[in-house]
Design brief:
It is a single chain. The chain contains 10 helices and 18 strands. It starts with 7 loop residues before the first strand and ends with a helix. The protein has helices spanning about 15-25, 95-105, 150-155, 220-235, 285-300, 310-325, 330-340, 345-350, 355-365, 370-384; strands at about 10, 35-40, 50-55, 65-70, 70-75, 80-85, 85-95, 110-115, 120-125, 125-130, 135-140, 140-145, 160-170, 180-185, 195-200, 205-215, 240-255, 265-270. The chain has 3 domains: about 10-50 and about 95-155 and about 255-305, FAD/NAD(P)-binding domain (3-Layer(bba) Sandwich), CATH 3.50.50; about 160-255, Alpha-Beta Plaits (2-Layer Sandwich); about 310-384. With about 375 residues, the protein is of the alpha/beta class.
Length: about 375
C-alpha cells in the first residue's frame, strides 16, 4: 500500500471496528473521507456469538440465527417465564456479520482494508502514527479497538470482575428444548461461593447453545466449565448429543475509565474503550449506541478526547460491581430479587440506560433489607 495517510484509521476488525466502519460509510457526510481498517487476521468465521435485545426491525435481523419473544429465569427458589414485549432477544453469529460488511464496503471508494499486525500506536500532538508489519500509517482520527488489560489490572480504585464462559453448540438425538424461550439465567447449579449460571439459547427442539457462565474474579480450568455443562445437561435428562462447535469468552466487567487514555487524535472503542456494559458484560448493542453518539460528534471536528459517554448509569454499574465483587457468593440472590420484584421490561430498559429516576428507585427498593445495606455501604465507600 503506497498511501500512508488517511482521514480515519480503525485498528481492529471485530464488532466495534466494523460497526464504526458501517456507520461512517453509510453517512453521506463522510463520503469523501478516506478510511483504513487494519486487522491482523481476516475474520470470516463464527468466532463470536452476540446476543442482545431490541424492538423489532433491527439492522441485522436478516443475519439472525434466532430470535425469541419469551425468556426464562431460574433460581433455587423460583422459575418463571416472561414475555419480552416490546423487545425480542436476538442471536447473531459473527460470520455473516463479518462477511456482509466486508463484501458491502470493501469495494467502496475511499475505503481500504489492510491485513497486518499492529505493533504500536504513537500519538504526537494532532497526529497518531501506527506502526504495523506492513509499514507506518498516520491519521488525525484513529479508533483503536485492541484491548489492553494492564491498566485495568494494575489498579485498585475500580472493581474488576470477569464474565467468563465456555459454550457448546449441541445437537440432541431426541427432542430436548423449548425453542420458544431463551433461558436467560439458570442458577440451579452449584455456586461454589461465586456467581455461576447456565445461559441457554435453543435454536430448535434439537439444537442449542449451552454456556456455563460466571461473574467472578478468576478464571477456571477449562475442564471445569465443560464438566459444568455436561452435569447440567445430565440434570435435564439429555444424554445423547453431538457437540457441533465450542466457544470460549472472557469479558471484563469494570467501570475503569479507559477513556483517560484517549487523546486528541486517538480514541479507544468497544471493550478497549470501556464500552462493555459493566454490570452485565453485554457489549454489542452498547457499542452500537456509543457509535450512534460518536458519528454526530465527529462532524463537529472536535478533538477525540472531548467525546464522553459517562452518565449516572455508569455510577449505578460501579455500585453494583462493588457489591457483586464483595458478595460474589450471593450474586444469584441479587439477580433473583431483581427479576422477582420488577417487571422484566423495566429491567431491560434499565440495562439499556433508558429508565427515569423513579423507575431506578423502584429497582433499588426491590432488593432485600440486607442487600440494600450492601448498596448503601458501597455508596458511602465511593462518596467518603
Amino acid at each position: 500500500m503506497t498511501k500512508n495517510y488517511f482521514d480515519f484509521i480503525i485498528c481492529g476488525g471485530g464488532a466495534s471496528g466494523l460497526l464504526l466502519l458501517k456507520a461512517l460509510r453509510e453517512d453521506p457526510f463522510f463520503n469523501d473521507h478516506s478510511i483504513l481498517l487494519i486487522e491482523k487476521e481476516i475474520k470470516n468465521t463464527n468466532d463470536r456469538t452476540w446476543s442482545y435485545w431490541e424492538t423489532t426491525g433491527g439492522l441485522f435481523d436478516s443475519f439472525l440465527t434466532k430470535k425469541w419473544s419469551k425468556a426464562q429465569f431460574c433460581s433455587k427458589d423460583q422459575s418463571f417465564v416472561f414475555d419480552l414485549d416490546p423487545y425480542q432477544y436476538k442471536m447473531l453469529r459473527s460470520a455473516s456479520f463479518y462477511n456482509d460488511i466486508r463484501e458491502k464496503f470493501s469495494k467502496m471508494k475511499n475505503t481500504s482494508f489492510l491485513q497486518a499486525e499492529i505493533k504500536s500506536l504513537d500519538s504526537k500532538k494532532m497526529i497518531t502514527e501506527i506502526l504495523t508489519s506492513q509499514g507506518k500509517f498516520k491519521s488525525k482520527k484513529v479508533f483503536n479497538s485492541l484491548f489492553d488489560a494492564k491498566p485495568m489490572i494494575n489498579q485498585k480504585k475500580y472493581p474488576v470482575l470477569q464474565q467468563h464462559f465456555v459454550g457448546w453448540f449441541i445437537k440432541t438425538k431426541k427432542s430436548s428444548f423449548d425453542s420458544s424461550k431463551v433461558v436467560f439465567m439458570d442458577f440451579n447449579i452449584p455456586q461454589i461461593k461465586e456467581t455461576r449460571f447456565i445461559y441457554l439459547l435453543p435454536i430448535d427442539e434439537h439444537n442449542a447453545l449451552v454456556e456455563y457462565t460466571l461473574f467472578s474474579e478468576k478464571l477456571l480450568k477449562y475442564e471445569t466449565y465443560e464438566t459444568g455443562i455436561k452435569t447440567y445437561l445430565d440434570s435435564l435428562g439429555i444424554k445423547e448429543y453431538e457437540i457441533k462447535e465450542k466457544e470460549q469468552g472472557n469479558i471484563p466487567m469494570t467501570c475503569f475509565p479507559f477513556e483517560k487514555y484517549n487523546c486528541k487524535s486517538l480514541i479507544h472503542i468497544g471493550t478497549a474503550g470501556g464500552w462493555t456494559k459493566a454490570s452485565t458484560g453485554f457489549t454489542f448493542m452498547n457499542t452500537r449506541r456509543n457509535i450512534d453518539r460518536l458519528i454526530p460528534f465527529l462532524k463537529t471536528e472536535k478533538n477525540l478526547n472531548a467525546f464522553r459517554v459517562k452518565n449516572r448509569f455508569r455510577f449505578y454499574d460501579l455500585l453494583f460491581l462493588d457489591v457483586l465483587k464483595r458478595y460474589n457468593a450471593n450474586g444469584s440472590k441479587l439477580f433473583s430479587r431483581m427479576f422477582e420484584k420488577n417487571p422484566p421490561v423495566r429491567i431491560f430498559r434499565f440495562l439499556d440506560e433508558k429508565t427515569n429516576f423513579i423507575e431506578e428507585l423502584k429497582i433499588l427498593s426491590s432488593f432485600s433489607s440486607i442487600q440494600k445495606i450492601w448498596f448503601l455501604k458501597a455508596l458511602f465507600r465511593r462518596l467518603f
